[in-house]
Amino acid sequence: MSETLPSEAQPAPPTAAEPGRDDRNISGVPIRLDGVTKRYPGQDVPAVDDVTLEIAAGETVMFVGPSGCGKTTLLKMINRLIEPTGGRIHLGDEDVTDQDPDRLRRRIGYVIQAGGLFPHMTVATNIGLVPKMLKWDDARVAARVDELLDLVGLDPDQYRDRYPRELSGGQQQRVGVARALAADPPVLLMDEPFGAVDPITRQRLQDELIRIQEELGKTIVFVTHDFDEAVKLGDRIVVFDVGARVVQYDTPERILADPAEEYVADFVGAGATLKQLTLTRVGDVDLLQPTTATVGSDAAAAVAAAQAAGDDYVVVLDRRGRPISWPTLAELTRSPTIPDTVDERLPVVGMRSTLNDALDTMLAASQGGVVVTGRRESLAGVMAVETVMAAIQRTRSGAAG
Ligand SMILES: Nc1ncnc2c1ncn2[C@@H]1O[C@H](COP(=O)(O)OP(=O)(O)O)[C@@H](O)[C@H]1O
Ligand SMILES: [Mg+2]
């Protein structure tokens, strides 16, 4: 017997026009919260007070709001790590409010900060936990573990037998995502999963999640305190106030353009124009095509090609087409061949990064541009800070007009 819920053949009827989203693969199911309430023992006011909310199949919905407003409590009621004191919860067509929590949790992946991995178990054992509980045979579990490591961008041969302490924070988080996806649950709950990693790693993890979600189409509920993260990852955002009161539930575009209350406007913050940069992906803008040169090739030829193209730098590619440095022409004239030195500070973003991420990366590296990579980290182009400036100009004149 399959433990997964029947997936919806069709996404729930959209509440508004959603351009270009109907061709997506969807394996998630809708979640319906109906008057859900949690009153902790001894509390005068409920932590979550009568929340009614529908989350469409295959959407990523972001929960934002001040600390203590009830986001985690609400999230944990969906997989019943916390028992509601009132209301009903539906997954798909099924009322799961009274369902056995262990059974329920096999159909709901859960990712928390720092991965929540068991330290005494290898990566493979951590990821295979739920499949093992579902009594998959060893070969099937092993194959699934490798498939998931691949999916989250970790080489199975290198990582399956490691222990969590032998991984970086970002890698632990990837394993946490892999573990949550192990039994292919239709629903994924994520509670500030990327809160504990550095900003560049966080960008990468976000980009990976976007890619995975494009592939899988789960229903994802994601708690964050970072509004930029909500705008970047969310199909919709729920802005909560105390007691998990829903102040606004809308697309990032509409929340930025038209915050429902002063409270939301404050939350969005003063840099609303800059936040528009979070709505645009690097893959959506025209990239510059720089002069390139492969490691070991003739440096003088590369300099000549760059001069002919009017470039004052060259992007150096390794033998697999991946950018490793971008020396100026003056630097290149120092050696007869293109050096294989890897510039550890080379600012690189992916196609799914936002213009905001790109700007952050430029600022962190004190550079006026970023190198953009596509499939298998191969060069896709270069984006200059001017492109970001032009995008700001456009949203400004758009807002004025
Ligand atoms: N186990 C608990 N017992 C009593 N009160 C709790 C418990 N967990 C959370 N709370 C309270 O419930 C409210 C909501 O908490 P929480 O859901 O963690 O908020 P958030 O995730 O938005 O920061 C807070 O006032 C918090 O202090
Ligand atoms: Mg919380």
TrEMBL record:
Enzyme Commission designation: 7.6.2.9
Which top EC class applies here? Answer: translocase
> In this protein, which residues make up the domain named ABC transporter?
31-268
Q: Which keywords has UniProt assigned to this entry?
A: ATP-binding, Nucleotide-binding, Repeat, Transport
Pfam families for this protein: ABC_tran
List cellular component terms (GO). membrane
One GO BP:
glycine betaine transport
Which GO-annotated molecular functions does the record name? ABC-type quaternary ammonium compound transporting activity; ATP binding; ATP hydrolysis activity
Annotated region (Disordered), positions in chain: 1-27
Q: Which family does it belong to?
A: Belongs to the ABC transporter superfamily.
Instruction: Tell me what this protein is called.
Output: ABC-type quaternary amine transporter
